[in-house]
Amino acid sequence: MHAQVGIIGAGPAGLFLAHLLYREGIDCVVLEARSRAYVEDRVRAGVLEQGTVDLMAELGLDQRLRRECMIDEAIDIRFGGGKLVHVHFPELTAGKVVTIYGQQEVVKDLIAARIADGARIEFEAEVTGLDGLDGDRPTIRYRQGGTEHTLTCDIIAGCDGFHGVARPAIPDGVLTTYDHVFPFGWLGILSESPPITEMTYANHDNGFALCSRRSPKISRHYLQVAADEDAANWSDDRFWNELHIRMNDRDKSEIIEGRIFQKGVTPVRAFVAAPMRYGRLFLAGDAAHIVPPTGAKGLNLAAADVRVLARALTEFFRTNSMARLDRYSDTCLRRVWKVVRYSWYMTSLLHRFPDHTPFERNVQLAELDYLFSSRAGRLTIAENYVGLPLEDE
What we know:
With 393 residues, the protein is α+β, with helices and mostly antiparallel strands. The chain is 36% helix and 31% strand. 44% of the residues are buried.
């Protein structure tokens, strides 16, 4: 089998790229190791920047999003036993907002549209090896249904996440990796309960908390816990009681408790691999970078990557010019590092660090107090939260 582009991974990066290339008449095959049901049920982020929503509209794939999404015009940050920083996006960013629509819903829409187009997407197709990456006809070997297959390509896009096969296929010594694991995790739950009015972060003496929204009937809540915490140690009652405390909702009048139907601990880390390219293999999304979830940037950064990659591939297949492809990594990494900086800032601002001295704790609280009284400080948060402009190519 041959395709102009072989895409490894049917997450947001791979699926957005497939649709962008399909629109330009570029033949591609998406290979996904998991089943369709697994990919569509995998709950991840839910905050979409305006640029990501615009991309779905540009592709004609935003109909269900428009019907079912929620619009967030602000975030709140609680601290100091009663103070609240209100960051109102339209006021600070000339009308921009963010859209709440679960990543799994984005994935469902993209998969359904690709199948409706009759375009090639192979599920339960486990990639076992990549060959010839430094030549002009790289090959993907994969196993599906107990049978070995080979896909030759002009280009391979590695969109298969942090634990995928694409990045490890790059020879030793080519990549420089930058990695930082924070000394805590997030205990997250999904509950059948209406969310509170605004996406709300809290810096409490007991640790960070977040009340976020997934739909008018589903809430997504988080608590900072030890990095090696076992979610089984947290009964539903224990979780709700601690969330009320950290959100300064001691009379339990604001946060509605509902049936918890998912619970787990997520590590908090930052990771960047550079360059995002080796020969004819191009990395995008989590295959190349991970950002702390505090800034809600993972899916959006993946979408930004593949917009750049799709434009470069279109130029390559139309003109045989590698100029944009040669700039791909540098173009993307400028944005990646800005997003890492912002996510690092938000993580450092809102969490309790076990090794913080009283001096460092008071500096952290002073920063929050500054944001409370400074429009300029709130503007910095707002313009990053709604999404920075795409990098010039």
